[in-house]
Amino acid sequence: MTVIDEMGKASAKAQNLPAPITSASRMQTNRHVLYILMDHDVKGSGKGAVIGFLKVGYKKLFVLDRHGAHNEVEPLCVLDFYIHESLQRHGYGKELFQHMLQSERVEPHQLAVDRPSEKLLCFLRKHYNLKETISQVNNFVIFEGFFANQHAPVRKLLPKRPEEEIKPYSLTDRECAHHLLNGEPGGPAAQRRRTSSLTRSDNTSH
């Protein structure tokens, strides 16, 4: 079992989900992007410790606006978000989420969130002032401003790339070493790395 599988199980347990929604096998068969936050300064570990992860991806959705009209959009969606329980309320969640926003070039109100927990809703309210939601009939939550200026985050569907070109993993500024993918230096994680190693002393919560 990979580190990604272990994190997915921990996230599912924290959210009281019947089964994990994040796993290494799923990441290899979809276009989702996984941001992993690591601490390389953990003594004795040799490889560092995983602090948490954030999974996002574009999904084609039908969402309602304030007038009850159906809109077909393909926004960037928050699909899974987990910070280890012992490291919550230390700013790590904010650091990870902010890095994702900058990397994906998206504003918080443009996101759709899949089945957010109350803890995640509080996080978004506290750090991004996302308070007013627009009620939906599916499991996704969108916020006031999603349709602002008629510029909802719609993305045209692209032709599916050949399987060998799909690179589903991405990294945060805390470098995620290739051992996360069975120790293979040429694995997908290495191919999509966005790193500039930070230290755990940075005060950045889920």
UniProtKB/TrEMBL annotation:
It is found in: Cytoplasm; Membrane, Clathrin-coated pit; Cell junction, Focal adhesion; Cell projection, Axon. Residues 196-206 have a biased composition (Polar residues). It catalyses: L-lysyl-[alpha-tubulin] + acetyl-CoA = N(6)-acetyl-L-lysyl-[alpha-tubulin] + CoA + H(+). Residues 180-206 are annotated as: Disordered. GO terms for cellular component: axon; clathrin-coated pit; cytoplasm; focal adhesion; microtubule; spindle. Acetyl-CoA binds at residues 81-94, 117-126. Keywords: Acyltransferase, Cell junction, Cell projection, Coated pit, Cytoplasm, Cytoskeleton, Membrane, Transferase. Its EC number is 2.3.1.108. Belongs to the acetyltransferase ATAT1 family. This is Alpha-tubulin N-acetyltransferase 1. It comes from Alligator sinensis.
